Amino acid sequence: MDKSLRKWVSGVLLVSPILLTSCSLNLSLPKFDESNKAEFVMQAMTTGQQAYYQANGQFANSIEGLSLNANLDTGEYRYSVNTQGQYAETVLMTAAAKQGTLPSYAGVVTVSHTTGGVMALANICKTDQPSTEPPALSSTPVPGEGLKCPPGSSPVR
Which of 7, 28, 67, 120 is the 20 to 30 A CA-CA neighbour of 139? Predict the structure, then answer.
């Protein structure tokens, strides 16, 4: 390497940390429309309930119990969490649209005791048409098929 190239590379290496520290990195999350935000919240609550059950042997009986750091007080959806059973082995979560122009959501997480241990089953359904009523989900798995969405709704993937 000739002397002038070495001097140039040395200069760049000395200045680059200064240049890099003065740069700022701006990241922005994509903006959700309200329907997509509700899907995201329902998925977060479902995953949160599964983790909560794994740690505590029962489901959280409130949104606050899940420690979600999200502002769920929106003008578009009303969120709820309802546990079922003495030891809270089933939880139903809903996102009911406040306006008739948006779909509503329901999610269920239930525990199934098998010979191999305990297995958590989860499902989230979305109404096929705009509705202020969430789908009426069953917490009883269909043998060989798991939890199914009722007619008029579709699974959220």
Answer: 67
This prediction has a pTM of 0.73
The contacts of residue 150 (CB under 8 Å, 6+ apart) are: 125, 135, 136, 137, 138
| Beta carbons within 8 Å of 136's beta carbon, 6+ residues apart | 106, 150
Count CA atoms within 13 Å of residue 121 on its CB side. Answer: 18
Tokens of 81: 């969490």
Contact residues for 90 (Cβ-Cβ < 8 A; gap 6+):
59, 83, 84, 108, 109, 110, 111, 139
Selection from 84, 132, 131, 129 nearest residue 108 by Cα: 84
Which parts of 51-116 are beta strand (E)? 77-84, 90-97, 105-114
Residue whose C-alpha is closest to residue 124's, from 65, 34, 61, 38: 38
Q: Which of 58, 53, 152 is closest to 106 using CA atoms? A: 152
